Amino acid sequence: MTTSKNKLTLPTALLPLVFLLLLLAVNVAVFGDAAIEGPNQFALLLAGALVAIIALKHGSRWPHLQAEMLKVMQIAIAPILMLLLIGALSSTWMMSGIVPTLITYGLTLADPAWFYAATAVVCAIVSTAVGSSWTTAATIGIAMMATGEGLGMSLPVTAGAVISGAYFGDKLSPLSDTTNLASGVCGVDLFSHVRYLFITTLPSFLIALLLFLILGVTHRATGQITQSAEMIQAIHNSVNVSGWLLLVPALVIILIIRKVPALPLMLLATLAGSLFAFAFQTELVYQIGGATDWTGLYRGLLLPIVGETQIETGHPFTDDLLSTSGMAGMLNTIWLILCAVVFGGLMEGSGCLARILEGLNTLIRGRTSLVATTSGTCGILNITASEQYLTLLIAGRMYPELYARYDLSARNLSRTLEDSGTVTSVLVPWNTCGAYHATVLGLGTLTYLPFCFFNLISPLMTILVMRMGWRVEHLTPEAQRVPVQPNH
To answer: Residue 488: pLDDT above 80?
Structure first.
């Protein structure tokens, strides 16, 4: 049977993507940030239906398309479980006083002029230590967002600083799954890959820091001292703030260094948060549970994990801060991810994705255009496949022969995948990363996108470095003697 992959024209393959982008643009115009609460999910399903119609018309069979959807769905299972556990962790860390303690210390020590840059640096350090932008955003990121609001800073810029720092570590940490995946799919030694990443990553981050410094110095927040003092007092009135609570984040970092897998780690961190909530916020736990016996204790510990809880402090912002949604708060994001992987699986199974990428390959005219095309491929994959793991896997399989043909070592490909695939996933509202960070930070993806300086600069930096020929690694003589298959 002739497959749709062999018969599709480029305009036909692009049609579902154009249709999706138009629907999403209409949704944003009509619903604003609320587009992520249902309209965008339905848009992804409608675009997926169009892909299926095109595929069936060009000779595909429905069982094949369904199998492709299920294959992509398997990749999404781990992120979905991670989302549920992070929702639980965020709530228990809030109710136990861990995050309020971090916020209190941050409000006491923070200087508004340095706040954005300091946020990026702190998140970069944490993310490098833990190897996860998701964990960084769900813990220290939430604390920095709350601290920024208490100081009267811009929330979109603060979110951009959190994400910039989080993805700096996500790229460079040997503990990061994307760092391991990008190096592994290209056959590059992990630490060799990390060292080569510094050539583009460090300049990108320094430029981002300079921009955050400029925004911080020129920012004029009104009433920030009064607001900060009121917030600190409201937190002290509601929860017990103690440096002992920071033992839990310290334990998490130790377990990560010892390479405990992410899902068990998040469960342990959630349980530790509940234990410390019982130890330090006993009265609050019984208040949430609505009784003073063991049933009240059980309800008070479990309700923040699974659903919405709210504490009245008399300070509106602090009320919002201490209101949590647990695992239930992640269901909307999970809904979006499920619809996105349906679209991504259909795009791949129908051959539309392969045809688009084939068209991109015709743009290559030299080493710089090869890197630029790889970067563009990663961007398109993050938009269409909606999952950064798929982006790294597909692009990593596509280009090794071309890089060898242009006498470029595989480290150039693995670095480009990270510079363009890992960091841009968070900029796409329906990508798993974009949907997740929008949910955790409480801002629409397009709201924080203009201020994710590191993520926006990185793809440009990787192209610029190749154009300048700065420390470009070529093939070894042994690798050059291996015959390269012609590019079809």
So the answer is: no
Residue 82 has pLDDT above 80, yes or no: no
Helix (H) or strand (E) holding 311: none
Burial track 418-456 (b if 16+ CB lie within 10 A, e otherwise): bbbbbbbbbbbbbbbbbbbbbbbbbbbbbbbbebbbbbb
* Residue 85: partners with Cβ closer than 8 Å, 6 or more residues away: 263, 266, 267, 270, 327
The number of C-alpha atoms within 13 Å of 98 and in the hemisphere containing its C-beta is 30
Q: Between residues 175 and 330, which one has the greater pLDDT?
A: 330
- The count of C-alpha atoms lying within 13 angstroms of the C-alpha of 347, restricted to the half-sphere facing its C-beta, is 36
| pTM, two decimal places | 0.67
**Can you tell me the distance from the alpha carbon of 139 to that of 249, in angstroms, rounded to the nearest whole number?**
9
What's the Rg (C-alpha) of the chain? 23
Task: Give the model confidence (pLDDT) of 148-163 as tens digits.
Answer: 887 788 999 999 999 9
Q: What are phi and psi of 70, to 5 degrees?
A: -65, -35
Partners of 472 in the β-ladder: none
Mind listing the pLDDT tens digit for each residue in 91-131? 888 888 887 887 777 666 667 788 899 899 888 887 876 66
Sign of the CA dihedral running 169, 171, 173, 177? positive
CB 133 within 8 A of CB 124: no
Q: pLDDT at residue 55 above 70?
A: yes
| CA proximity to 403, closest of 377, 369, 359, 378 | 369
Domain boundaries of the chain, sorted by first residue: 4-77+330-480, 88-326
Residue that wins the pLDDT comparison between 323 and 217: 217
In 326-420, alpha helices (H) = 331-350, 352-361, 367-384, 388-398, 400-405, 410-417
Q: For tokens 């509106």, name the residue.
A: 316
Residue with tokens 């690694």: 473
- Exposure on the CB side of residue 223, measured as CA atoms within 13 A: 5
The residue whose two tokens read 């603060």 is 158
Sign of the Cα torsion 7, 10, 13, 15 reads negative
In the block, residue with structure tokens 């996500």 = 170
Give the contacts of 115 (CB within 8 A, at least 6 positions apart).
147, 148, 151, 153, 158, 216
